[in-house]
Design a protein that fits this description.
This is EGF-like domain-containing protein. The protein is mainly beta. 0% of the residues lie in helices and 50% in strands.
Length: 460
């Protein structure tokens, strides 16, 4: 419809950039109700006022995050529910696109955080957090607030009373390798990076065997799924792979190959070069499909949009030369990206872990940063880093042969596993590399010097 040369009433507009709007117009602007399909795959259906999302509306993201609630000035504002792709659910207040006011966040395994929220973070007046992993006292079923390990005052970094957090058995189970260093299918030679899929299959970068090995759940040996054709520079060869991630949508694997200075993708034994001339050490992918790569020599982390690897990417951490300032890194190794696109970087030669929020110009120290050492406020060449949904940071303290847990804002961490000296006993580690959790909360460590993957079972 048109009135006085201006769009009015019902109409459909398709833009050159691929966006399509179908709905109501007034005074040449989107007004009323309508659906906008974005070029990046997002879809919004709901109210509009003067070109801005306003009133009740539903947004669906490409990764299947869904928000159903109030909008104001094109931001989530008022009350609404967010169903995340990883099955978390938040129901409560929103302010300028962030969780605000009373709200409840729940996780698939029955953890529940009932809190007041400020800027997407829970603050001190939390009423309940129930932890119900399968090894609960009542067999894993939460029938009420006190049926599992619970606390009345979990709060996060601002509070004095801390939740009694998870613990793991101190004697590990060897789930991969452990048969000495070698190139047989039941052996590894310095595993560095690991990835665990939803079926608990483990993908390992087998550094000095120049291959990627997949071990099925409970298997006695692995299978080579990339490389294994001796060290080399051909597309079907690897030279010291250091990290691997799996795109579980198309079952492809993405590999950081340190010796070849490139990032490649393998799909059905076919290889595609994604990024070259990069001293890559670690990979991460966020919920939007952006790929992050740490560059060990340029002392930076860059981000690429999937499928657009011809450009140089965007620097999202470091990139200001080698150093120990908050805007600098010194030999970054492993990285982790959280739901907010904040990047955690094991800043190895600075013996610290840095957190760079999205679009930040410098990072903050969240672990270590007190020089190399073995005290609880120190690290020694940290490698693997992962963050759980409570915001706790787990670090492979490589030179101290232990895994540490830190909470942002705390002056020191605590030893989670290892810390019993360098060795090959079940309670010892030898230069640990990457870390990972499975869906049950068990902790996996690439125990590089022992040529094995160690599994530490969760206890409550």
């Amino acid at each position: 419809g048109w009135i006085n040369d201006k769009r009015s009433g019902l109409g459909v507009l398709t833009s050159f950039d691929g966006e399509t709007y179908s709905g109501n117009w007034a005074d040449d602007k989107r007004n009323g109700s309508g659906t906008l399909q974005y070029a990046d795959g997002r879809t919004y259906t709901g109210g509009w006022m003067n070109e801005r999302k306003n009133g009740p509306g539903i947004m669906i993201w490409p990764n299947r995050d869904i928000y159903d609630g109030d909008w104001f000035d094109s931001k989530m504002h008022g009350s609404g529910a967010m169903l995340y792709a990883d099955r978390r659910i938040y129901t409560g207040g929103w302010l300028n696109g962030m969780k605000s006011g009373p709200g409840i966040m729940s996780w698939p395994k029955a953890e529940k955080c009932d809190a007041n929220w400020i800027d997407d973070k829970a603050v001190c007046d939390v009423h309940l957090l129930a932890i119900c992993f399968p090894k609960c006292l009542n067999g894993g079923k939460c029938t009420g607030p006190n049926s599992c390990t619970c606390t009345s005052l979990w709060t996060g970094p601002r509070c004095e009373t801390q939740l009694k957090f998870n613990k793991w058995k101190q004697d590990a189970i060897t789930v991969v390798g452990g048969n000495g260093d070698g190139q047989e299918l039941n052996q590894l030679n310095h595993p560095v990076g690991i990835f665990i899929d939803k079926k608990k299959n483990i993908f390992i970068t087998d550094l000095w065997n120049h291959r990627i090995v997949e071990w099925k759940y409970n298997a006695k040996e692995g299978q080579t799924i990339a490389g294994g054709n001796e060290k080399g520079n051909q597309m079907n060869q690897l030279n010291r792979p250091v990290d691997v991630i799996v795109d579980q949508q198309n079952h492809s694997i993405i590999i950081a190959v340190w010796g070849n200075r490139r990032v490649i993708q393998w799909l059905n034994q076919k290889q595609q070069l994604l990024i070259e001339n990069i001293d890559c050490h670690s990979l991460a992918m966020d919920k939007h499909g952006f790929l992050y790569v740490s560059d060990y020599k340029k002392n930076e982390v860059r981000r690429w949009k999937m499928g657009e690897y011809n450009d140089e990417g965007i620097i999202v951490a470091g990139g200001n030369g080698q150093g120990n300032q908050l805007s600098q890194l010194n030999h970054p190794t492993f990285i982790f990206v959280d739901e907010d696109q904040s990047i955690y970087v094991s800043d190895s030669s600075n013996h610290r872990v840095m957190k760079w929020r999205k679009d930040a110009k410098e990072g903050i120290i969240v672990a270590g940063g007190n020089g190399q050492g073995r005290n609880l406020n120190q690290l020694s060449y940290p490698t693997g880093v992962i963050v759980d949904h409570f915001g706790q940071i787990y670090v492979a303290d490589n030179g101290n042969h232990r895994v540490m847990r830190w909470y942002e804002g705390k002056e020191e961490g605590e030893i989670v596993v290892g810390g019993n000296g360098q060795g090959n006993q079940s309670n010892q580690l030898h230069y640990p590399g990457d870390l990972s959790f499975d869906d049950e909360g068990n902790l996996y460590v690439a125990d590089s010097g022992n040529h094995r993957i160690a599994k530490f079972e969760l206890i409550l």
